[in-house]
Amino acid sequence: MDKSRKNLLYLFELPHDPISLPRGGGKIHFDLENDLSRPPVVATRLGGGVPVETTPVPDREDVLPQNLGTAASVPIGSPFSFFIKSHRQAAKDLCDVFMRTKGAEDLLQVAARVHGQVNETLFIYALSFVILRKKELRNVRLPSIIEVFPGKFIPQEQLMKAQLEVNRTDPNQSEPVVVEHGLEFSGTHLKPEHRLAYWREDYGINAHHWHWHLVYPIDMGVNRDRKGELFFYMHQQMVARYDMERLSLGLPRVQKLENWRAPIEDGYFPKLTVNNSGRAWGSRQDDTVMQDFLRNDFGLDFTDVTDLEIWRSRLFDAIHQGFMIDRAGKRVVLSDDVTSGKRGIDILADALEADSNLSVNSPYYGDLHNMGHVLIAFSHDPDFAHKEEMAVMGDTSTAMRDPVFYRWHKFVDDTFQEYKLMQRPYTEQDLNLAGVKIERAGVVRNNEADVLHTGWNTRLFEASRGLDFNGRPVMVRLTHLDHEPFNYHLQVSNSGRGVKEVTVRVFLAPKLNARGQEMSFMEQRILWAEMDKFTVSLKPGSNHVVRSSKDSSITNAEELTFRDLENANIDPASPEATGFNFCGCGWPQHMLLPRGRPEGMPFQLFFMLTDYAQDKVTHPAARGCANGVSFCGIQDAKYPDTRPMGFPFDRRPPPTLLDQPVNTAADYARLENAFIHEISIKFLAERLNRD
């Protein structure tokens, strides 16, 4: 990686501090020409005896405030919310400035000059957006958002402990200060919802949510293949996984937030700070009621709860009528059985999320998903009477911490499910694949079959990359759920005469509901969580297929830290750099399995083989990302599966299959290309060894 590309990495460091402050452990210095805002501490740090590499940044007229559009309209030091339309416009304006640059060095100079003129989160968002999309930067990887904004993931109390420890120790000490965080997280177990804090506040799932919305933004002129459908599917899968975690703890499945006039039972106190000034995110008391948005500090039109109810009514009318009305008054048919053009779920999701550039009629169908986030995020101070900051529901990197996120998205998903249940059931022809048979299938962990283990693990992040602790290194050790790696084993027979390419689809769901009863197909249908999807070639006769859980199509590898990227001495685009060859989007590998129970909890694995000749998508060569394709697609290419996302559980089942009624998911296993198998997941409540 050349110097300019590597120096782009350091623009992500210390986003709240002046760009002239040394970075990279004091070894990197951006020297801005005519920099009148350079703080005195810069000279002190530069004189500390550490060899410094200085990068001169000349004056540029193209980054004057008048050339940045609305980018400077979001106040520095305040929250930035992609759910707010005026903030999205500010992001687009800044991204447009960055996209006009020619190469890494030009982007470096422009971004270094813009730094300090715009909101910190907006700056990092725009820089990330452009690096992911500029073709000449395809070997540049983004550092972990956890290290860029540690205050969004680590409570202020822990960061203050680190600062106090730094103040007490010798300033010449080179050993980093290490602070711990977990397991109790933001609350005690006095309230049932707090028992899930370890899951909701996990650094990996919150980083995933931030990165997914970076890859699939709205109102940014990005129209990626099946973008709306993937919004539906990825969020549906997150709710399914949350429900599995709830059942593991003996809690009922999440209830949708559908009555927006009733109090929200559970409050949330994030204990995080918006920036390094110590200003706290907004908190929501128990039994807070959503109210009309009447604030004038975000450049957003006043929005009533009634507006949300009207948009919901119009969307449900479209679902039940089978069409939407575009801006010209013409009907746009909603159906997933199409041979060309967009599926109905794609059209519906573009309008519900909503992307005003892709919605068939945004003035009519509104901005339901985004403004739902906004009204909840400001429910504690809807008219700015108390001058309180936005709550965590307003930021994609913090929203999943709040219990109400899952209630809101359960409503969103139920709206999509209403549409899905309007589609015809799959037929036996849709589901069957003649000539192949799954003889046996299961999982193996450490030579033990069908028993998987979960427990606790830890990960170190360098908080001092995002926050300045007087120039001292500070590490935070975060506790998180994890599992021991395992392998899928399938014994498959191919009765044909030639090689047969198939797609292997793997799903996981709890066997029992909250009452301890086995579930019907329809009760269990939206609990099935995709675990993996991959292609294999079956030779004639018997085939033994082995697949590692580490290769899951939904997950990414561990978050790449600043140190990971600094120490990577090989080109990330090269074949030997597999560990670095990902774009950061994907469900965290350590959260692949639900927690389970100490005594073991019964789950079902569902395997289905489909014809790869029908599944495959012809697409051009694209950016190599070895992670998360089921949730994140492929950069600059079509989604790599022609079937509806969630197949075969995205629709109601056929009334009969092979002349017998379909009552449970196990009835699909009558087909030779399907197999269902019971396993147990045990929670060990101890530190795991993943080697």
Which CATH class of the largest domain?
Mainly Alpha
Tally of structural domains: 3
Biggest sheet features: 7 strands, mixed
3D shape: globular
CATH level 3 topology of the largest domain = di-copper center containing domain from catechol oxidase
Q: Number of helical segments?
A: 20
What is the terminal separation in angstroms?
30 Å
> CATH homologous superfamily name of the largest domain?
Di-copper center containing domain from catechol oxidase
Mean pLDDT over the residues: 91
- Please state the CA-atom Rg, rounded to the nearest Å: 25 Å
- The name of the CATH architecture of the largest domain is Orthogonal Bundle
How many β-strands, per DSSP?
19
Biggest sheet: strand arrangement: 3-9-8-19-16-11-12
In terms of per-residue confidence, which ranges show pLDDT below 50 for 5 or more consecutive residues? 575-582
What would you call the structural class? alpha+beta
Q: Strand fraction band?
A: 15-25%
**Helix coverage percent:** 25-40%
Subcellular location: Secreted
Protein name: Prophenoloxidase-2
Keywords: Copper, Disulfide bond, Metal-binding, Secreted
Domain Tyrosinase copper-binding: 402-413
Descriptive notes:
InterPro entries: Di-copper_centre_dom_sf, Hemocyanin/hexamerin, Hemocyanin/hexamerin_mid_dom, Hemocyanin_C, Hemocyanin_C_sf, Hemocyanin_N, Hemocyanin_N_sf, Ig_E-set. Residues 402-413 form the Tyrosinase copper-binding domain. This is Prophenoloxidase-2. The strands form six sheets. Strands 3-9-8-19-16-11-12 form a seven-stranded mixed beta sheet. The chain folds into three domains: 3-140, Hemocyanin, N-terminal domain, CATH 1.20.1370; 192-422, Orthogonal Bundle (di-copper center containing domain from catechol oxidase), CATH 1.10.1280.10; 428-449 and 485-682, Immunoglobulin-like. The chain contains 20 helices and 19 strands. The chain has helices spanning 3-10, 41-46, 85-99, 103-114, 120-133, 145-148, 156-168, 197-200, 203-215, 227-248, 305-321, 344-353, 362-365, 368-377, 403-420, 428-431, 521-524, 562-566, 612-615, 629-632, and strands at residues 28-32, 53-57, 177-181, 323-325, 331-333, 436-445, 448-449, 451-462, 474-483, 487-494, 500-510, 529-538, 541-548, 555-556, 587-588, 601-611, 656-657, 660-661, 674-687. The longest helix is centred in the middle third of the chain and has 22 residues, at 227-248. The protein is α+β, with helices and mostly antiparallel strands. The two termini are 30 Å apart. Helix 10 crosses helix 15, helix 11 (305-321) runs antiparallel to helix 14 and helix 12 (344-353) runs antiparallel to helix 15 (403-420).
